[in-house]
Amino acid sequence: MAAGRPAPRKMRWLRLGLETYVSLPLFMLVLLGVVWAASFHFIGNERVAAQAAARESVGELLDTYEAHVARNLNGIDQTLKLVKYASERKGPTAALPELAQEGLLPPALVFAVSIADASGHIVASNPAASEQNVAGERYFEYHRQRDNGQVYVSETQRDVTRDDWHIHFTRRLNGPDGLFAGVVIVEVAPAYFTSGYERSRQGDLGLLAILGTDGVVRAARIGENTSWGQRLDLAASQEASAQPRTTTLDNVPRYTAMRTLRTYGLVVVVGLAEAEQMAAFEAGRLTHMWEAGTASVVLLILIALVWLWSWQGAKARRRVRRAQETYAAASEANLDAFLVLRAVYGKDKRIADFRIVSTNTRAELMTARSKEEMRNTTLLQWLPRARDNGIFATLCRITAEGGVQQEEWHNDMPEIQAEWMHWQVVGVEGGVVAILRDITESKRDAARIFHMAQHDALTGLPNRNLIGDRIEQSILHAEREGQEVMVAFVDLDSFKLVNDTLGHTAGDELLKTVASRMVECVRKSDTVGRFGGDEFVLVLPQADADDADRAMLLEKVLAAVVRPVVLDGQEVQVSCSIGAAVYPRDGGSRDTLMMNADAAMYRAKEMGKNNCQFYAQEMNAALEEKLALMEGLRRAVDDNQLRLLYQPKVDLASGQVFGVEALLRWQHPERGTVRPDLFIPLAEESGMIVAIGEWVLREACLQARRWQDAGLPPISMSVNVSPRQFDDPHLVRRVAAALAEAALDAQWLELEVTESLIMRDVQQAIDKMRELETMSIALSIDDFGTGYSSLAALKSFPISRLKIDKSFVRDLAHSTDDQAIARAIISLSHQLQMRVIAEGVETEQQRDFLVENGCDEMQGYLFSKPVPPDDIAAMLARPSEVAGAGA
Ligand SMILES: Nc1nc2c(ncn2[C@@H]2O[C@H](COP(=O)(O)O[C@H]3[C@@H](O)[C@H](n4cnc5c(=O)[nH]c(N)nc54)O[C@@H]3COP(=O)(O)O)[C@@H](O)[C@H]2O)c(=O)[nH]1
């Protein structure tokens, strides 16, 4: 710890002490203590004053009572002396009447005066009383024995003759000889001495008492009750008279005082009940306590409220502090730029600008200004354009109304280095916090994704979705403006061939070239889109065009597409077929227009390709026909509508049949025999070819078995394999199963694949062919010469036979080109150690040419059309026509 710096613990307490939620309640508690201390002090003072007053009252009462009793006693003694005097002069019997006559006797109601002779007999009394003797009384004995001139005061006692209680005051009578002659008696009721009791002064529990120096009470009055005969401890009464105490009369504490009347041997005692004397004080004390209590409760409530208020305040301050710290930490670590802006008000009380109070590091990067620079400027100094582009207005509104606003913003302010921003404005006390995020990249990504979702990746043209949208938009526009829209479906005629033979990369290149050529043919406002594969769609909104104009445009597209393209160093030429439909004439919706343009395109294909056709209603019939055929084909396998014909293959040297090609026929229940040219493409298109091909394979193998079982010489069975069949990963397994089912030796099976099929993916084709080769299955290339085989690839294929396509055989007699091609294929085959067969041989001339040029085998109508199995059996049964195994 550094010297002179308070220890952290002390600092914490100090900080805590400075917190209002601690100091204020502490102060209030001290105040509470002061209130109670003052209250107790005040009450104490009042108690002392009340006690002093009580003591003073007792003193005053004693004085008054003593004087009263003394007066009464003097009166009684006066009577005693008078009667004594009269009795000693005139004799006891005459004295009383004389005194009564003179009015010198006290009222008989108050005092009973009597005279007893020396023997104790009452000889005279006023008022008159029955006869009695008092010789046994203590006062009689007292006076008989001594002549001391003193009054004797008896205890309060009951009279023998009257059933009353009296105090007897007596004096001795002497005879003329000075000897004891009896006693004069004055009887006084005890209440006589306490009649001065004033309730207003002494209360209900005040005490007036007269008692002898022997401590025996002669008369005592407390409230309404007068009593006598009790014994009081006089010594105790004299002690500590300042403090209230109880007496044997009752258990009520009283302030008491006493005084001795020595002449009569009596003591007067007065007492004031503490409870009554202190009642006013107690009431006052209670009032004070209530006041202090009430003040305390109020103070405690105030303390609680103050504590709560200051605690909430402290909490709020802590929250604010934490929030500020969190904000500072978060904003520094954040990828968003933070700007805290405080409103600056003008003279008109409206926001004139915003001062930049704080920023974070991200803001520095985004604005290329340091935090210091930012703090020393205002919003409008920094971004002058904010006044006009809506930003300033938004900030003013959020400052005034609070809340949050967020939006994406295409930035037009060069001071902020972001093309696109997401900005969020949060209203805070006296201003706003603006949070800026650079979303340029994500915007570009989104635009890219949006573009990708709507465009073809290869050509960059609108894709199927966007084409649909464009057609719909064009229809809506045309509907409003009373115009027309042409939708044209463009399908490349020989694209598949190019793709299969030159590979996908070349195919892609071709598509891109064709696409850009089509785009060049139309206006910018028109749409050229790629629908998929080699299909394109043109959407051409047309204000005033007729079919002739449209045809001209489409001819332009045809011409552009058909221009040769150089791919991989080879010049390739593809044409296209175009079908067009026009809104509103050929359809009012996107789907109808597309469907009808598609139908027209199919018609263009049927018309020999490389032409365009406008939709006509009957075209749909062809489409429907196609769909109906497809539907029928689905049932063909299950319903046994398929059968195979077999076309013999002849060895040109011997002229004998060495094998057959299985050719499929569909025996349609209504249409009769349907040629494979019609339905094989449909089967290929729908994928049904896999199941159909498997059936062909099995049936061909079984048929070969049947012929062999019939004892006919074994011949080769050729089966055509379509591209989709060839791609089937289970092809080898299916072939093996067909052979196994028919128990046919693999050497009698040959699979024919087209040149274009194997050139699509040379390596894959080689792999598959090798698998088949290991099973001893022969492979031949069908339609050779129509595709693009490379010699290198040809060398790698495990091929045993090439088949010259019939298109080269057809004009063999006249076309020197075809002759050259045929010769080249024959020569090539032989150089590659393959046999060569020509198909479609219909004439002697064709056969002669082939024989002359070394062709090994032929197949064609010249020898036989495809025929049912029985015909083949008949043929094979003639030994001269069979070339023998593997010829
Ligand atoms: N994938 C499969 N394709 C098959 C199957 N069966 C036939 N096909 C293919 O269908 C195409 C048309 O076949 P088809 O109508 O049977 O025509 C064949 C012959 O009838 C015909 N041919 C034979 N000789 C002559 C002739 O002298 N002149 C002439 N004009 N035509 C003739 O040629 C067709 C045989 O061609 P190819 O297969 O190239 O040897 C056809 O492409 C068949 O391949 C099948 O089961 N699966």
From TrEMBL:
CDD domains in alphabetical order: EAL, GGDEF, PDC1_DGC_like, PDC2_DGC_like
Gene3D superfamilies membership: 3.30.70.270, EAL domain, PAS domain
Single biological process term from Gene Ontology: cellular response to nitric oxide
Keywords of this entry: Membrane, Transmembrane, Transmembrane helix
Alphabetical list of SMART domains matching this protein: EAL (SM00052), GGDEF (SM00267)
Domain EAL: from-to ranges: 626-880
Membrane-spanning residues: 292-311
Keyword Transmembrane: yes
Molecular function terms, GO-annotated: cyclic-guanylate-specific phosphodiesterase activity
All residue ranges annotated as the GGDEF domain in the record: 483-617
Catalytic activity line of the entry: 3',3'-c-di-GMP + H2O = 5'-phosphoguanylyl(3'->5')guanosine + H(+)
Pfam families for this protein: EAL, GGDEF, PAS_4
Protein name (database record): EAL domain-containing protein
Organism of provenance: Pseudoduganella albidiflava
